[in-house]
Each structure stands twice: as C-alpha cells, then as structure tokens.
Amino acid sequence: MGSLFDGIGGFPLAAERCGIKPLWASEIEPFPIEVTKHHFPDMIHVGDITLLNGAELPPVDIICGGSPCQDLSVAGARAGLAGARSGLFMEQIRIVKEMRQAEIERGHTGVNIRPRYMVWENVPGAFSSGEPKGEDFRIVLDEIVHVVCPSSHVNQWFSYGWQQVGWHYEDNKCSLAWRCLDAQYWGVAQRRKRIFLVADFAGPTAPLLLFDALPNQEVKNES
Q1: What is the pLDDT of residues 100-114, one digit of tens each?
Q2: For 200, which DSSP code?
Q3: C-alpha angle 18/23/29, rounded to 5°?
Q4: I need a surface site. Which of 27, 43, 158, 165 has the fewest CB within 10 A?
Q5: Radius of gyration (C-alpha) of the chain in whole angstroms
Q6: Which of 161, 72, 164, 85 is nearest to 125 (CA)?
C-alpha cells in the first residue's frame, strides 16, 4: 500500500493490522513524518505529492489518501475542488493513472495492473460542496471512474443531494462504493463523521469490500 497525504500514518496503521504492507508514504509536515518513521521504520517517505511521478514510485496494490478537506468542509469557505488544498485530490488521481500506465507498459493486464484499488477519505461536506449542490462529489466519482473508463460519466442521482451510502458499477470494468462513518462507533471518544470511498479498477468488488456484502442489484444506485 502507498499512502498519500499520510499525516501520522492512519492508513498504514490500518493496513498493517490487516496484514497489508505499507510500502511508501507522501507527507510534507516534519512532525507527522517523524511519528511515522518511529512506528513504520521500513516505510519509504517520498515527499511532496505535487513533485511525485506515479510511474517512478514503487508499484503498490492499493493507493490510499485523505486529500485536504478545508475547501470542502461546511466550516470553511467552501471553495470546493477549485480550492488550492482540496484540489490536491486531482494529484492523487494523476499518480494512480501514471502508475497504472507504467504497469501497462511493463506488460501487465487486467487485475495485475497496479494499483488495482484506491481508497479516498474526506469530510461529509463533499456531499454538498460545489454548484449545483453536490457537484464536487460527482466530480470525484467521475474522475475515479475515468481512470479506466475515460468516456464514462457519473450523474448525480438525487436532486436533494447525495446519500451517505452508495455505489456505482461500470459494467465489469470497475466499481466504487462509499459510506459515511462516525468515529464514535469505532473506538474514538468523539463524534467525527468521514466519507470512506473504495474503488476497484478491475472488477465489481468495491461494494463487497466496503459493505462486506454485494448490494441488492435491484436497488443499487447507478447513473
């Protein structure tokens, strides 16, 4: 696993507990880097995300990232993905594309193209940010689907906004699923809701991974 916007290593900690090796991390703040160096001494620190080339990074099966949330948060100025901080989400997409293209050029195909999976975490304000309301989250879904299906388009399904749980299939080419989780139910003594989105770039397993079950095909939310 590779961790972008790594902070103090939340994704590497979760990965390690699940038997997944955190191979490298991108972070620019000195103190968080020292924290992760202490807890994950074998993890490579690759530096500023804007200076990275996905084709040159060690290939990983999963790329995780919680891109800066300030421009999406209801507590901020709501600049959305056009903001300098939350707009860094596009750097995560760029790196995924660059790594996958390099893998294709090495002769890998199908499920063997890395990264197969991407995980994105952010604030629930992403559901309502943008114009029209919720457009930023639609763009997030669009950009993730475009990694493998560049001509596809994800529509906003509900005029009153996005649901806190949803999924999308692009034939058998890729799938993505998201859910809003509250830290108070996961061993943390505070209320802290966050969106967690999983994408599978080679199959239909994203809902299975995030929900531990495939959604009912008759009621799935598809564009």
Answers
A1: 999 999 999 999 999
A2: E
A3: 105
A4: 158
A5: 17
A6: 72
